[in-house]
Amino acid sequence: MIKIENLKKSFGENQVLKGVNLEIKTGETVVVLGRSGCGKSVLLKHIVGLLRPDSGKVYVDGEDVTTATGAKLYKIRRKIAMVFQGSALLDSLTVGENVGLWLQEHTDLPKSKIREIVRRKLQLVELEGIEDKMPSELSGGMKKRVAIARALAIEPQYILYDEPTTALDPITARRIDKLIRHIQDELKMTTIAVTHDLVSASIIGDRFALLSDGVIVFEGTPEEFRKSGNPKAIEFIKGGGYE
Amino acid sequence: MKKRLKFAIEYVGEIIILMGGVLKRMPQIIRSRHLLAEQIYTMGVGSLPIIGITFFFTGAVTAYQAAYQGAAYLPDIYVGMSTAKALLITLGALLTGLMLAGRIGSAMAAEIGTMRVTEQIDALETMAIDPIRYLVLPRFVACLIITPALTLVADIIGCIGGLACAVSILDIKANIFIQGLRTNFIPHEFWGSLLKAFTFGWWIAIMSCHHGLKTQGGAEGVGKSATRAVVSSSIMILAFEFIIAQIVF
Fold first, then answer.
1. What percentage of residues in chain B have a pLDDT greater than 90?
2. A114 Cβ under 8 Å from any chain B Cβ
């Protein structure tokens, strides 16, 4: 379980998170919705300890990420995989090396075994046979799927998606959404996705959390979100043309 | 003024922390040996042509200048002697250091800086892969190895350049020139030259990786980091050229 308590974060004068409270139960898929620049990615980066809050706590299975350092932090991170907005594939490595990087660094598995796992993970995201390509040779959608395969190679308990469909065409975006949903249904991992795309959120999420003005202003199922009279939710639905 | 002082203290502190972090992880270089081999090849073998061309002409110019200055009253052997002296005492290590700061220092800062702004370093961290161990350590050790090695190559090619100039332009016999090289060879100066090169490699890696890791913004930030890496490495090289010269020679 991931528990976020009264999380506050400022960058200079700009207070991005003003006291976020959120609980993600094991096995569920929560989509954090919000406008661009509202602090969704900042929230995700606190969960993996890439950012330190000004105040507040983030617990992963009861362990406080905000105070963990060194080996303790790495131990927590081994449970979590993150798919970055820009995919963040290491551009000096091939696709296969990217997907197998965690295994190579943290296990003693022989290369042949790593290659087999990489092949299976790429198969899961429908990208077989591209192990030897460089990230620069891939399209945006393919990079995103390789990033998902890399995350899955860790076999994490938690998977975080930062704007998984940003900068993709609608057809590719829906394909990625369905892939994320499929992975969730198959592997039953606890999933947190942040997005401003309500269509994407509806495909991926079991539960929505709306982040606005640095706090979570709504939590509930997609259905409850649509029917809620919360002015921020209404503004989000109308502004996005999702009525 | 207070702000600048704070910036300077922070800057020095960050450099010291990075050096401490790299030295602490030194035993882990065995684990990163494939990355080290890759860096040695990219930096070392990739720099050979430019070092070779530069030092061939540097040796030739040094020999020509020596002949120009002493032609009227010094024997021909002096040309070989002064070429060896110039290369060993200063030019070999210093020019190699400055050239590597420009060639590999900027590349290291730009590469790590790009990784920083495109979240590749964040991705490493979320995979529980230590960026200092994975990115900085192999580059640091590679620099410590290749800078002295390339300095050695530079000294040899410089002498060959000097010999070529002496024989083809200055009309000095090859055996006279080589006798000059040998006469003035002092092992202590040779080891001093390698010590300088080792130190220059240290600073090139530390300053370049530091600026790469601290990159902010997009392409502009990467460009600034590359420039800062070259400028700060060059300043450290020149400062340590002076300090080591005082101690060794």
1. 82
2. no
